[in-house]
Structures are given as C-alpha cells and as structure tokens.
Amino acid sequence: MPEKEVFGLQKKQLVESMKLNQAVGSKAVEEAFLKVPREEFVSPQYRSQAYSDTALPIGFFQTISQPSTIAAMLELLEVKPGQKVLEVGLGSGYVAALLSNLVGEKGKVYAIEFLKGLIDFSKSNLERTGVKNVEIIQGDGSQGLQAKAPFDRILVSCACPFIPKPLVDQLAEKGRIVAPVGDLYMQYFEVIQKIKGKILKKQASDQMFVFVPLRGKYGFQKDSF
Ligand code: SAH
What we know:
It contains six helices and nine strands; from the N terminus they run H-H-E-E-H-E-H-E-H-E-E-H-E-E-E.
C-alpha cells in the first residue's frame, strides 16, 4: 500500500480513538485533525510513528505534543471561524496548522517561537503542507505579541508557572486563553475568559500533563531546569 494511504488510514484510526477517549468532542476539531498530515511535522526519523498518540522529539530538546493532549486543549479553546489566534510555542507548526483549519480562510493565526532552529523547521513544514494564514514570529511569547493584539484566542503550548499577565492584557473581550499551568514536572489546564472586562479563571481538568517549559521573561528561569 502506498505510504499516503497507510497514513490516511492511521490518521482516521487515531481520530476515532480520540473520539472514544473523549479528547475529541466537536466536529470542527475532528475535521482539523483529519486534514493536517502529522507525518509532515515530525522529524523524518519518527515519520512512521506519526499517528501514534504520543509526543515525539523534534530536535533542540523540544517535542511535538501528544495528539489527544492537543485535542483536549483545542476543545477547551473553542476556536470559531474568522478569529484571530495567538499560539505561544510554535515548535513543529502542527498545532498552528490545526488552528489554521479551525479559524478558516477569514481567520488568522500568529505563532511565536523562541528557537531559531524551530522557526526554520516549522516554516518549511507549514509551507510544504500549504498552510497560508499562519504568521510566524521569532521571540519571547511569554510577553505575547502586543503589535497584533487583541486576540480572540490564545493557546500556550508549553508549561507555565502561571499565565503571563501580558497574555491576559492582550486578550479580546469574550476571549479565551488555554494554558498548561503547574511546575516543571506536571501541569493541569487553566482556562481564562474575559467577560465585560473581568477575568474568569478556572482549572479545566483533573488530569495532569507534561509539557516542555515556557522560557522567557514570564516563564521558568533557566537555572530551574
Ligand atoms: N505546538 C508545538 C509544540 C511545541 S513544544 C507543536 O505543535 O509542535 C513548545 C515550544 O515552545 C518549543 O518549541 C519551545 O522552544 C517553545 N517555547 C518555549 N518558551 C517559549 C517562549 N517564551 N516563547 C516562544 N516559544 C517558546
């Protein structure tokens, strides 16, 4: 069987298993996962494992997150077509590609990455897979992206000690932030909503997750890991 067909089948199986374990609940998130080829976002040596439900190394001591973890975050984020979304921690570009599908042609995704090597990696992955509405920025995403604020949705794809204040300030009215918050070893999802200027914060899951650390001004400081 040609590789493309094998990946197509494996992708459908992964999505079905994520529906069964209730990581995927909405049609929109299901369709996004069916559209984005994860094999184009993993390091070449892990290509055959692209549809295993695990995080995989992408170099520079970073990982592409586990699909069911990403799905759970995307369900909490409730992205709508046409929205402006910020992702902190672009990594391989896979989550940005999913977000691009969720916002659709009229929407826009800004994605910040700290590491130059991963800027080049994600840029080539997004170009190769024809993703057009993702703008890549190199910098410290813990400070957000003031120049393009406010954002309807903000997704933090790395572990934070707390949700950085600049992200809260850069959130639009009725906006939502989803982030894994905790220490370096375990985090749970926090959701922030801005309603009539007020900030509502809730812990969104009892389940714990392990993300790579957020660095920069409002992240974990270098001597702590
Ligand atoms: N969403 C990614 C997962 C990447 S892992 C994917 O789909 O593959 C988290 C990423 O956050 C790493 O690439 C890391 O370099 C980046 N990162 C850590 N601290 C950051 C910061 N302050 N600003 C921007 N990116 C950061």
